[in-house]
Design a protein that fits this description.
The chain has eleven helices and no strands. By secondary structure, it is an all-alpha fold. The protein folds into three domains: 65 residues, no CATH class; 64 residues, no CATH class; 47 residues, no CATH class. Helix 5 packs antiparallel against helix 6 and helix 10 runs antiparallel to helix 11. It is globular, with a radius of gyration of 22 Å.
Amino acid sequence: MKYLLCILLFTISLISEPNNTFNQIQKEYNEAVSQALYSLKIDKYLVLADKGNSLAQYDLGIIYEEGHYPVNINLKKAVNYYQAAAKQNHIPALVKIAYFYQKGIILNKNTKKAINLYSKAAKANNAQAQYKLARMYAREEGLKKDIDIILSLYTKSANQGYLSSIIALGLYYELGIDVKKDYGKALYWFSKVKDIPTIPQRILNICDKKSELCK
């Protein structure tokens, strides 16, 4: 019923605004549908979350963290739901809680707990956790810098298509960050993300230096 009402109200609003472009109309329609679906879902999520369903708990965490209709952003509630899911070993929830500990948002800053949670998720092959942990090693954030571990984590993450890790590896090998420059490896990784605006120029720069790699 909420879904139908939302769409009906949206349709009526279009009649009063005949000058909207098609793209704007489509955008507003998609937003109306999205809001209606979230409104329908949240009641079901709450029931499931109360029963201990970790998937629903995690989704509610996302809804409260990002402020999806019909709720406003509430980071405290988001953390509570993430923690409930994390206690059941929900891997993405572990990554979320690790981040809140790392940054000291809602939870008291605790680098050790952040590392432990990222490590647990990274061992479960979560690409985001592998990236986050590599960054902590690189920045010596509670960890001693170890280039072998850093590259290993980035590579595991990049092999799952995680964009930030792919770019990081390209930059490490292009610029020689704590590792010997290797333009071949840099091109290998950059070629996977060449649709990102800044990457084609980096590829051209490498080709100017090592034209034999770009034939």
